[in-house]
Amino acid sequence: MRVFLFFISVLFAVPGVMAEQSPIRISTDDIDLILSVSSTNGRLYQAYLGPRLLNDADVASIASQSSLLKAEVYPGSGAEDYYEPALAVAHNDGNLTSILTYVSSETRKIDDNVVETSIRLADKVYPLEVTLYYTSFARENVIKTRSEIRHREKKPVTLRRYASSMLYFESASYHLAEFSGDWAKEMRRSVQELQFGKKILETKLGSRSAMHVYPFFELGFGEAPGENRGQALLGTIAWTGNFQFTFEVDDAGKLRLISSINPYASEYELKPDETFSTPDFIFTLSNAGTGQASRNLHDWARAYQLKDGQGDRLTLLNNWEATGFRFDENILEGLMKEAAQLGVDMFLLDDGWFGNKYPRANDRAGLGDWDVTREKLPHGIPHLVKSAEAAGVKFGIWIEPEMLNPKSELNEQHPDWAIRLPNRETYYFRNQLVLDMSNPKVQDYVFGVVDKIMQENPTLAYFKWDCNSPITNIYSPYLKEKQTQLYINHVRGVYNVFQRVKAKYPELPMMLCSGGGARCDYEALKYFTEFWCSDNTDPVERIYIQWGYSQFLPVKSMAAHVTSWNKQASIKFRTDVAMMCKLGFDISLKELDEKELAYCQLAVASYKRLKSLIFDGDFYRLLSPYENNHAAVAHVSKDKSKALLFAYDIHPRYAEKLLPVKLQGLDASRMYKVEEINLVPGTHSHLRENGKTCSGDYLMKIGLNALSSSQTTSRVIEITALPESAISLK
Ligand code: DGJ
Fold it and tell me: Can you tell me which atom of ligand 1 is nearest the CA of 363?
């Protein structure tokens, strides 16, 4: 393993290293994180992070040398380390130093796969304690870390820095893949080499996890993170607010990684005996590139994090792109029938159904007034639910309960519920303000929005929960002089509501949305079955966006809809792109001709037949759109009996060399039937291997001629193992 070899070899050469306390070993099937306590100063150091070590003696050996590495696991301030600390506290006497030494540790086996290690550290001079938690998921090779800070000083202390975790790496070079973007251009991946000094990825958006920067990164060691080669660490922080990743290369060439809530404008007054809990930092490490690392995270998320991670998902028809705010009962009922005609499970009513004094006829009014607009929908939501059910589909609804328009009754009744400055001109992002979720009354109100709709419509099947504005005009009327608590308490208030909704409606599927894909973090996804990746549904753009999110998130959580964005691309191409993820439609069928409709119906039927493979299989990114004029991905069932290949021609060049697409993850010794599906009625497959039987070995080493030289075309290929088809490779 290249990253840490240098580290180890230098240490072995150092004589006279003192023996230390037994190492703390946090392991998964393939990873070891080894910490150890220095016998000279009692502090906790990182000895090793890398592929799992085979011999206990080697673990002891590397641990015994750890303090030489100067990789203190949770450095406070004021000691000999002059780099960014994990913790910074202003004590009651004004002293800014904290030095933590080891007190005790405990390892708790939660089940056969999950182990939680907690390590208590304390300051010898001040009654301040930090407990570090590491939860390891053996099979998924994922480690989750967080910390808890508490104290017993007489008065509150001020927390200025409060990292979730700090990790160290040593390698010839470090290559960071970051994900940037904005509305309609989410999750654009770019890679840079880290040099001496700091690189910070952070947000100051308050009420969402992303926009401009996304809470995800990849690290490659010695080379850029590759899809199928090299060592790659993928990390993310589970926080639906301001986050900060600090990558700091020190004078010795070590990389220090601090993951944290962004401390910007967020000094936290921690009362005696109160516990400050940081968000989880979640990471995985793979020796076979980012592809394997992504599959680790997908498996982990489905098993442990995502709401109903193992469950099914509903296909749907949404009305946003088809109607915007311009609809009435007739139009909606027409769309419900179209949903049934398409064969999807549900009709989803989007923005624009509420507000009476200030009807939500556009985005300038009504937000906050969650009563149905009587003039537009005279028979209310219960009637729409019934109409949908009569048409043969379920009914879901859009809400954005954490916001208000200044033009709303809510604003008239509770002007102090919104975050806004009392003494400056107000700046509006999409004509709205964020409600002050640090206020418990506001939390009750927001919970009440969902609860009321559910009480009145017990068979309502789905919520799309939007959040279109970051926090603007940062001032909480509720927190008064404690403004530096706002960013943190606001997010905690959001979680309070999410928790209550999930506790009361545990089975209810919900889509997380934030003006496109600005809410996509793993803490929020505990409460949501899926998220909206982007308002940009141009299939070409979507290939890149979905490619980006799939690095960290399972495709069953990624809502992808067929719309009219980029009508130059065929309905087949648009649908084939959406089918790679969680399929929906947001289009009026009136826009489709007979053949196109027939195609969509066929695709929905195929999707329903194959969705367990898409949702719960292993996802392989085969051909990157960043490196090719094409893209290809495949889902492979866990038992390797079935695969689904999606091949896209984005903008092929004239007479370009077209290479076969090589599958991955199949059983080399089985025979598979190859069949192109999703063909437009009346057309035939041009796939050379269509209808043939090939070995898994052939499919992975030689591949399928699944690409073409036509712009925005696509092929979906079903690959099915023949029963009992093990072949002899001789
Ligand atoms: C932003 C979302 O991303 C869209 O899908 C849509 O729901 C609008 N908000 C509605 O205002």
Answer: 11
Which amino acid is located at 29 in the chain?
Answer: D
**Which helix (H) or strand (E) covers residue 180, if one does?**
strand 174-181
CA nearest to 235, candidates 555, 645, 573, 552: 552
Q: How far is the CA of 653 from the centre of ligand 1 (A)?
A: 36
Q: What is the pLDDT of residue 65?
A: 83
Exposure string of 346-378, with b = 16+ CB inside 10 Å and e = fewer, is: bbbbbbbbbbeebbbeebebbbbbbebbeebbe
And the tokens for 341? 């005609």
CATH assignment of 316-404+441-473+498-610, given 1.20.210.10, 1.20.140.10, 3.20.20.70, 3.30.470.20?
3.20.20.70
Nearest CA to ligand 1 atom 1: 515
- Report the C-alpha gap between 728 and 30 in whole angstroms: 31
- The confidence score (pLDDT) of residue 727 equals 60
- Per-residue pLDDT of 141-192, as tens digits, reads 999 999 999 999 999 999 999 999 999 999 999 999 999 999 999 999 999 9
From CA 522, how far away is CA 238, in angstroms rounded?
5
What are the residue ranges of helices labelled H in 679-730?
Answer: 696-701
Q: Which helix (H) or strand (E) holds 703?
A: none
How many residues are given for the chain?
730
Q: Which residues sit opposite 135 in a β-bridge?
A: 116, 144
Q: Tell me if 169 CB under 6 Å of ligand 1.
A: no
Give yes or no for residue 350 CB within 6 A of ligand 1.
yes
Best substitution site from 350, 400, 520, 533 to test ligand 1's pocket, by max atoms within 8 Å of Cβ? 350
Contact 125, 193 (CB under 8 A): no
pLDDT value at 69 more than 90: no
Alpha helices (H) along 86-202: none
Q: How far is the CA of 367 from the centre of ligand 1 (A)?
A: 13
Structure token pair of residue 493: 């208030």
Q: Say yes or no: CB of residue 468 within 6 Å of ligand 1.
A: yes
Model confidence at 11, in pLDDT bands (50, 70, 90)?
A: very low
pLDDT tens per residue, range 380-419 = 999 999 999 999 999 999 999 999 999 999 999 999 999 9
Tens of pLDDT, residues 303-339: 999 999 999 999 999 999 999 999 999 999 999 999 9
**What share of the chain has pLDDT > 70, as a percent?**
96
- SS3 at position 143: strand
- The residue whose CA has the least distance to atom 10 of ligand 1 is 351
More confident residue, 719 or 11: 719
Other C-beta atoms closer than 10 Å to the C-beta of 725 total 17
Question: For 82-118, what is each residue's pLDDT tens digit?
Answer: 999 999 999 999 999 999 999 999 999 999 999 999 9
Q: How far apart are CA 696 and CA 716, in angstroms?
A: 18
Tell me: domain 25-71+87-305, CATH 2.70.98.60, correct?
yes
**Contact call for residues 319 and 311 (beta carbons, < 8 A):** no
* For residues 680-696, average pLDDT: 97
Kindly tell me the sign of the dihedral angle through the C-alpha atoms of 222, 224, 226, 232.
positive
Q: Could you check whether 25-71+87-305 and 620-721 share the same CATH topology? A: no
Alpha carbon distance, N-terminus to C-terminus of the chain: 33
Cβ of 573 less than 6 Å from ligand 1: no
Quote the pTM value.
0.96
In CATH, what number does 620-721 get? 2.60.40.1180
**Domain parsing of the chain, residue ranges:** 25-71+87-305, 316-404+441-473+498-610, 620-721
In angstroms, the CA 221 to CA 682 distance is 51
Q: Is the pLDDT of residue 214 over 80?
A: yes
Amino acid identity for residue 368 in this structure: G
